[in-house]
Design brief:
The chain is built from three helices and five strands, in the order αβββαβαβ. The chain is an alpha/beta fold and about 170 residues long. It has a domain of about 100 residues: Nucleotidyltransferase, domain 5, CATH 3.30.420.270. Helix 2 crosses helix 3. The radius of gyration is 32 Å and the shape is elongated. It starts with 19 loop residues before the first helix and ends in an 8-residue tail after the last strand.
């Protein structure tokens, strides 16, 4: 027969909680994760990425004449060798397919964008976009006119790429 206990009012009974199974379970989980991470790291180490043998970059003369994008390079005035501060540089010019356009010349940019967009549509491209490449040191004030000109030319898609600058003049 089961043993019964009667608790009296005001009597304090010792309440104990056995922690041994909880500690055992925790150690087993730790061992499991250590073993699986070691196996996974060995499997990941064997993955080999295919790398190109040569540079995949193409010379500007080898690029197709008409594509579905226009690349605008915002050229920075910052030059470590010439002593111009690299922290907050102004833009020197915009380069589009080797042609130079003055900074802030929105009408010139609109004209070029519309001409490139028309060529792309004539060749059958439906989706046309502008890719803006700027040095991270260039102020946004020099990139903004390119974005506004693209919007004014009816181009709704733009990609913006920033070239990061490392201390010491390395890029």
């Amino acid at each position: 027969m089961a043993k019964s206990q009667v608790f009296k009012k005001g009597a304090s009974g010792d309440v104990e909680f056995n922690m041994t199974p909880l500690i055992d379970c925790t150690f087993q989980l730790i061992i499991f994760f250590i073993l699986t991470s070691a196996v996974l790291s060995k499997a990941l180490a064997e993955v080999r990425l295919h790398r190109p043998l040569d540079s995949q970059a193409m010379e500007s003369k080898d690029l197709p004449e008409v594509s579905n994008r226009t690349i605008v390079n915002v050229v920075s005035m910052a030059d470590v060798k010439a002593g111009i501060s690299p922290r907050s540089a102004q833009a020197k010019e915009y380069m589009i397919l080797g042609d130079s356009i003055d900074v802030g010349d929105r009408t010139g940019l609109i004209r070029v964008f519309k001409a490139h967009q028309k060529k792309a549509k004539d060749k059958g491209f439906k989706d046309f976009y502008v890719e803006i490449r700027a040095d991270a040191r260039v102020n946004f004030g020099a990139v903004r006119p390119v974005m506004l000109a693209a919007a004014r030319a009816g181009i709704s898609r733009m990609n913006i790429t920033a070239l990061t600058y490392l201390p010491g003049g390395r890029e």
